[in-house]
Every structure is written in structure tokens, then in C-alpha cells.
Amino acid sequence: MRKQIAAVAVAALLVLAGCSAGGGAGTTAPGTATGADAVYESPLNGTTVAQNHEAVVREAGSFTLVSTSTQTQAGQSFTREGSTAVDLDSGAYLSNRTVRGQNVLQYGYGNGTAFQRVTVGNQTQYAVPQQTPNTTQLAGDQLASFVGLFAFSYNGTESADGTTVHVYEANGVDAINESAPGFANLDTSNLTNVSSEVRVTDDGLVTEFGYSLSIDTGDGEASASLNQQYLDVGSTEVSEPAWLDEARANTSA
After folding, report:
1. Phi/psi of residue 251, each to 5°?
2. 3-state SS class at 18
3. Where are the domains of the chain?
4. How far apart (Å, rounded) are the C-alpha atoms in residues 64 and 32?
5. Rounded CA gap, 113 and 116, in Å?
6. Kind and range of the H or E element at 231?
7. Is the preceding peptide bond at 43 cis, omega within 30 degrees of 0?
8. Hey, what CATH topology would domain 2-249 get?
9. Cβ–Cβ under 8 Å, residues 65 and 81
């Protein structure tokens, strides 16, 4: 059963790709979503959502993708947080992720050259990363796959940081799209709770999306959740970090 919760989490954590992260999230005004004309009809078309979102992001030129994922089982909780700032014009990016006390910073120029700093306690190491973020995927490509995992229904609008967003929700095991590639081998009989949300502005920008699910393991309940947000769209600045010279001196790119 431990393998199943891990498999489900991996399936739904499509967008992490080892390079997104969390912290500094925006806030949504409390209260029930209000009725309004939907920006998209239900069920959502993942390709349409992704294409329109990416068009907005690319016109803006930059963004920061913030992510938090959590898995809990047998009284133990594992959280992964991070962020990736991207300048689409230059291709430069700066990612920052923290996993179990290990902080990984990665800076890339957009020409294939990148450097990485890993800090654990008072120990710091530099390296040329073997894997780097796919900025095209982060800009929106992953949304098509994510939206395809669930059957979303429109639930009105909310105010998030002063911006009206359209809320789409998927709740219950029946909301899972078992034919989606990510859930191809999923046994839904052990799922006890499933919920997912996508928030979209009038112009098609997906400001936030995520899911949570719970599984009966027979020995208790295990859960997994993911929340991702697009922040500072058009105002993100990606600058060379102060540690870059030291990274160059200690690596060969």
C-alpha cells in the first residue's frame, strides 16, 4: 500500500519535475464562491486551459511558480517546498527547493549553462546539474496533463489578492479520470477522499491549482497533496545569485 500512495502522488505531482517549489503563496478571500459567468465550460479542456494560460504568461515574459507538496503516512509527514523564477525572454531561471533539511539552489542562463548549490547544515557543495527545469513545461504545458486527471465543475468566483478568479473543483473518487495516463493503473477502491481545484482569471491565467487525496492502507490513512501558484507574472526578475562566482570556481560547466 505504501507503493500505491507513492504511485498516486507521483502521478498527480506531474508538474514538480524536481524543479518547482513553495513558500510565499497568495491568499484567497474566505467565503463561498459567488455565481458568475464561467471563463470555461465544464468539463474543462486541459489543452485549452494550458494554451490560454501559456499565452498570457508568455506575453507577460516572466513568472514565479511556487509549489508545496506533502505526503503523510504512518504518523510521518514529508513536505517538499520550492519556487522557480523564470525569465522567458532570456530563458534564465533560478530555482530554490528544500527537502528534508537540504536546500538546493539552481541558476541557469537559458543557453544550457547552469550551476547548482546544495546546502545541508553548514556544508555547501557546488555542481553542474545533470537535470535542469523545462521552462516551457513550467510556463503551462503541464496544465493540460493535470487538468486531464480530474473531472472539474465550475463553482463560481472568489477574490484572490484583489483579483477575481474562477474556481473549478473536482470532489470525490468519481471525479478521477481513470483513463488519464497518470492514473492508468490506479486502484480506486482504497481511495477515501479526493479533491482538486483550479483557479483561473478572466484572461485565462491559472493562478493556482492543486489536489489532495487520502488512501485507506488497512493500517491507517495515508494522504498526499499538492498546491502550485503562478505569482509575479510579468514582474518576476531573475538575477545572477551572489554565489555564482564561487560555483564557477568550484565546477567546470
Report:
1. -145, 175
2. coil
3. 2-249
4. 28
5. 11
6. strand 221-231
7. yes
8. outer membrane lipoprotein receptor (LolB), chain A (2.50.20)
9. no
Interacting residues of 179 by C-beta distance below 8 A, sequence separation 6+:
none
Residues with Cβ within 8 Å of residue 239, at least 6 apart in sequence: 94
Cell numbers describing residue 199: 483557479
> What is the separation, in whole angstroms, between the first and last Cα of the chain?
42
User: What residue ranges in 74-190 does DSSP mark as E strands?
Assistant: 76-87, 93-99, 102-108, 114-120, 123-127, 153-160, 163-171
Cell of 135: 521552462
pLDDT, tens digit, 9 for 90 and up, residues 225-239:
999 999 999 999 999
Is the overall model pTM greater than 0.70, yes or no? Answer: yes
C-alpha span between 73 and 78 (Å, rounded) = 9
Q: How far apart are CA 117 and CA 63, in angstroms?
A: 22
- pLDDT, tens only, 46-78: 999 999 999 999 999 999 999 999 988 888 888
Separation between Cα atoms, residue 197 and residue 48, nearest integer Å? 17
